[in-house]
Design goal:
The strands form two sheets. Strands 1, 2, 5 and 8 form a four-stranded mixed sheet that branches. A four-stranded antiparallel sheet has the order 4-3-6-7, with no helix packed on it. The termini are far apart. The protein folds into two domains: 1-26; 31-110, Immunoglobulins (Immunoglobulin-like), CATH 2.60.40.10. Helix content is 15%, strand content 44%. The model is unreliable at 15-29 (pLDDT under 50). β1 and β2 (43-44) form a beta hairpin. It contains one helix and eight strands; from the N terminus they run αββββββββ. The protein has 118 residues and is an alpha+beta fold.
């Protein structure tokens, strides 16, 4: 009986060490990522796709929430092209460098016909 308790304790310690918790804690944002808010006319834009690609290959994508926030993780350091699609229409394109631009807010300009007149 005592051997089973010791064996289970050792197994639990080995599993905790292998997965890095609870001693180090679980960090979902470890590594490179990009996150931010997509806005248009100072309002969050919901349900648009933010896509990160590198050398023409998609590396990650995120759908914005009601608050316009997005998060794309598991990225390597380097230059990325970011595009935003609203439905099938591309409404933004830009470039970022990681890890410098981990926080990257995107402002979509309204189509010319919808811009307010001055």
């Amino acid at each position: 009986m005592k051997k089973r308790v010791i064996l289970r304790s050792c197994l639990l310690l080995i599993l905790c060490a292998a997965f890095g918790f609870p001693a180090t804690g679980f960090r979902p944002d470890a590594g490179n990522y990009v996150k931010g808010v997509v806005t248009q006319s100072n309002r969050p834009v919901r349900s648009v796709w933010v896509i990160a690609s590198q050398s023409g290959t998609e590396r990650g994508r995120a759908l914005t929430g009601d608050d316009g926030k997005y998060y794309i993780g598991n990225l390597k350091a380097g230059a990325y092209d970011l595009v935003v699609f609203q439905g099938k229409q591309q409404v933004y394109s830009g470039q970022i460098n990681l890890p410098e631009n981990r926080l990257f807010n995107i402002t979509i300009t309204p189509p010319r016909a919808l811009r307010p007149r001055r």
